[in-house]
UniProtKB/TrEMBL annotation:
Residues binding Mg(2+), per UniProt: S211, T231
Lineage: Bacteria, Pseudomonadati, Pseudomonadota, Gammaproteobacteria, Alteromonadales
Subunit structure: Monomer. Associates with the 50S ribosomal subunit.
GO molecular function: GTP binding; GTPase activity; guanosine tetraphosphate binding; metal ion binding; ribosome binding
Residue span(s) of domain Hflx-type G: 198-365
Protein name in the entry: GTPase HflX
Protein family membership: Belongs to the TRAFAC class OBG-HflX-like GTPase superfamily. HflX GTPase family.
Compartments where located: Cytoplasm
Function recorded in the entry: GTPase that associates with the 50S ribosomal subunit and may have a role during protein synthesis or ribosome biogenesis.
Keywords linked to the UniProt accession: Cytoplasm, GTP-binding, Magnesium, Metal-binding, Nucleotide-binding
Binding residues annotated for GTP, in chain numbering: 204-211, 229-233, 251-254, 317-320, 343-345
Cofactors, names only: Mg(2+)
InterPro entries assigned: EFG_III/V, G_HFLX_dom, GTP-bd, GTP-bd_M, GTPase_HflX, GTPase_HflX_N, GTPase_HflX_N_sf, P-loop_NTPase
Amino acid sequence: MFDRYEGGDYAVLVHMDLPAEVDREDLSELQLLADSAGVKTLGIITASRSAPNPKFFVGSGKAEEIAEMVKERQASIVIFNHALSPTQERNLEKVCQCRVLDRTGLILDIFAQRARTHEGKLQVELAQLRHISTRLVRGWTHLERQKGGIGLRGPGETQLETDRRLIRGRIKNILRRLEKVQKQREQGRRARKRAEIPTVSLVGYTNAGKSTLFNQLSSADVYAADQLFATLDPTLRKIEVDEVGTVILADTVGFIRHLPHDLVAAFKATLQETQDASLLLHVVDVADEQQQDNIEQVSEVLTEIDAGDVPQLMICNKIDKLENTAPRIDRDEQGKPQRVWVSAQQDQGLELIVEALKERLGKQMVNLHLKLPPSMGKLRGTLYGLNSVTAEQVDEAGQLNLSIKMSVVDWHKLQKQYDNQLNQYVAQNS
């Protein structure tokens, strides 16, 4: 579809310092992104301008300098730490004689490598097609030729028009399939709400340690690595919290500054878990010098996906990289947990997270002692199914003596299920 140079694994990175805060990017983050994509960096070129050049983004002299480094070091791709217009990409490729990729294209490539589930792959393809469609409209004029030859002559549709139509059709098809996935997820969320099972969603800047924390809390085996976007597909696990019961823990894709809108739009279904959560665990890498910027970037994305008002508990992770910092819980004036200081990698302070979850999600509990006749074995099974039995004894008459602990909500539900007949089994000394 594209008359472009082939990409490769050997890159020259280009970073430009711009005075406007909204356009500013971080060079170290570009290097991490390149490493995450499996690219070997052969050289880095930096520049400063008051505003991007409309033709090359950088100045024409700097474009020649990039081309010389590409030739000298035999690089196969140039990666810019900025969003390039289709025209700028095309002009730079002519000068450098190799593939040119911008920040958005690099992130999309990483996402394409990381996607494992059917839904994740669909979402990545949707984001790629939306990105490509802008390149078709404004970029490759060689596609504006009419098709010719035997069997290809038609009503005069150009190759560009055909490709646009094919992309539109594919996007519609993916959106239909994602809509089905979203409906299935919605059914699961409604069922959890009916059962009053709280959902706790892990959010945070990419590489903050969300997946390591998720694995520690849920005994799961989610891929976790010290690289950007190690997690792409959402993962849900059940965990048990004292005085709360079953809690659904959700691991989500990491956020990043200037996350491309195509990606935010494509991952709406995934991020819905965050929007509907009972509580967000905002994981922060406290050893990162830019932690405050990262917190602000996450807050921006949460606002963009309508999850800005969901209650948050901040998890200050990687304290093992700080001096004289021990695990602890920071509370507000009312004593409610606001921050928990931990190291997920070193398994330090994780019990404090569970304690904070218990306080933030805790329900009003009842402690009862039931004396059940042998005929009430079904009720006994139900109580065990709710994980509410703390002790059990059988007396000589075969009567079941159960000590139970459950939320007031669950007890009222059980009462209703048994037509409010359960009080006759409650021992007077409960």
